[in-house]
Amino acid sequence: MEVQQIQELANKLKENVRRVIVGKEEAVELLLTAVIASGHVLLEDVPGTGKTLLAKTLSNSMACSFQRIQFTPDLLPSDLTGINFYNQKEGEFNFRPGPLFANMVLADEINRATPRTQASLLECMEERQISVDGETHILGRPFIVIATQNPIDNQGTFPLPEAQMDRFMLRMKLGYPSENEGVEILKRTTSSEVNQKLNSVVTQQEIVEAQSSYMAVKVHEDLLRYITQIAEATRKHADVSLGVSPRGTQALLRAVQAFAAVRGRNYVLPDDIKYMVPSVLSHRLVFRNRLAQQEGRAEALLQEVLQHVAVPSEDQLESSVK
Predict the structure, then answer these.
(1) Domain span at 138
(2) How many domains does the chain have?
(3) What is the share, in percent, of the chain residues with pLDDT greater than 90?
(4) Do the strands 104-108 and 144-149 form a parallel or antiparallel pair, or are they unpaired?
(5) What pLDDT does 71 receive?
(6) Does 2 have pLDDT greater than 60?
(7) Is 249:38 a contact under the CB 8 Å cutoff?
(8) Which of 189, 214, 239 marks a domain boundary?
(9) By CB distance 3.0 to 4.6 Å, which of 1, 179, 256, 317 could disulfide with 213?
């Protein structure tokens, strides 16, 4: 699949999602970037901002299977992965797949589940497979986990460990709608069109082809060095205990390639990297003083890093577009 075809695919998805979701163009584009790059997304926002609706709308637009899982303290790993049960009629054990066997999985309030259940997501998110009773089951493509957590209410929650956070390609927020968007939401609420079924505009196979093609987007070696220098700057920062890992730099590279493809370019620009850094890297930082791990602190630190790391000049990058 060519880059122009990936852009056309993304534009069709944006237009279809816009029929249901009011505004949030930037969030939709980031989510599409993660889908093209086969990355998982962590949505941190208050309830009622449209997180579930956005994930379900995008899944329906791609003709993909969708499962929503409400995470609670009593949720078990087998409730996600599935179980082997004894079939008395056939006289043998059969595997009953869990909700993770879907193309798009919404893990709602993921931090309300126990660490044991959270850990059951590690294998499927990283390796796209699930092991149950010694047998490995390969997950279909695409496979995207969209997890949500409420950044305000911390009672009865289990914070995600660093290893789990590192599995998410992007962390993003939807935020509250503007006044005009709020009015449009109310108009649609009273409209009969709100209950109409949303048709898919791209096939599951087209998404898989896009996921296999976006890495053809060219990235100049100086930009690879730029990404590495940003990561090293976070590791050396006085306020940071754990900086960006190699997995984080790989995620940033994949994200900027997919973002360039969504924008219709077969090459990456420095501005692409600057744009994606907050969403891809902010949740991978661990501060020495945990009290400093507050809302917006990681994003502010990354902006500080971007100001100090030298950006490759245009002359250096000329060969990347040839």
Answers:
(1) 1-214
(2) 2
(3) 46
(4) parallel
(5) 92
(6) yes
(7) no
(8) 214
(9) 1
